[in-house]
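name: query_chain
kind: protein
chains: 1
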Amino acid sequence: MADELDKWNSLSPLRVKEYRLFIISRFFYIMALRMVGTVVAYRLFQLTRDSFSIGLVGLAEFVPVFVLALYAGHVIDRSDKRKLLLQGVLSYSICIIALIIVTSPFVFQRFNNRFLEISFYVIIFCTGVIRAFAGPTSSAIIAQLVPRNMLHFAASISSTTWLSASILGHASAGFFIAWFGVHSTFYIVLLYILIASYGISRIKSKPFVPLDTEKVNVWHSVREGLQYVFRHKVLLGAISLDLFAVLFGGAVALIPEFADRILGVGPKGFGLLNAAIDIGAATMLAFTTLFPLRRRQGSILMIAVAGFGICIIAFGLSNIYWISFVALLVAGMLDGISVVIRGTILQLTTPDEMRGRVSSVNSMFVNSSNELGQFESGFAARMLGTVPSVLFGGVMTILIVIITWIKAPGLRKFEY
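structure:
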């Protein structure tokens, strides 16, 4: 009976209309983001036959996210978060239109591969600028949509939605490429973005908490956000652990090369392989949403990240498709545990007036690590070779966990 009651309580945020609109919009927006990443990676590899080009895409997106993140946090805390999020999503639609143009037969026939490659880098750089603001805003607005007693449930549902959208984005992109081609797939992405924009437009404007007059200075505000994160060792430890795990364990960037040269599968196999981590993560997040983790969350977080590193090593050693798929699937399940624990820590430990800045610090050190990890994977693949670079990343992930276990006892013992 108690478990049944917990299950219904965990879904209570969905009774709030604006939160439902947010979740639907977030679902379509994230699905569009993941489709863009998948389709651009696939098209670039077909153009260049070099995984390093995919790494450069990651770098192009990482640079603006990292550089603008702290300033974005200041802006978010002093803005109507609903309006800022809507502006970001609508701006993203302009980038999708640019991708539609670049991948059109007209442009493809009239320009060489080098021009097309650089065009992708420029457009993805622009999406990075948008993500620097839109990503942290999506996290910061949740506290304005639901009562505080629902906040940890809302964070878990949001994470589940994010990963569910990633699954469909990654997997469906592979099928859409096979069925319709790269160019037509971007029209579908544009439709998703417009649906997300409409949903956000139905949410009422959200007032922001004014900063004290002596703290209006941008750099003072930015420094205050950084100081808050670095003073809270549990939050800092969770962010740092995820940062290095994603940085070194990001084998996803090399999936196009693994699918093509090692596993020998086409676009459909590539799409499913690309979605395997997210399938596992969403499965675990759905489970933890209905049956929340009750104790020893800090230790569970570290064990999950270490297991993630082991799965990445297994993926690097495999040349059989189903083994590779299972390795990434289990890696995703372990990553899902990490996501829900870290997301809950972020929501529960951050005061309302600093949510934008703290979310931006999190974005700078965690979300942007996906793009930096993509570059690291591409660079390591060029320097070490594809398989050795993946093995190196898995080993480094395990080593980071061992160091964190020893150096961060507060995180290891943390419970909520």
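note: The first helix runs from residue 2 to 10.
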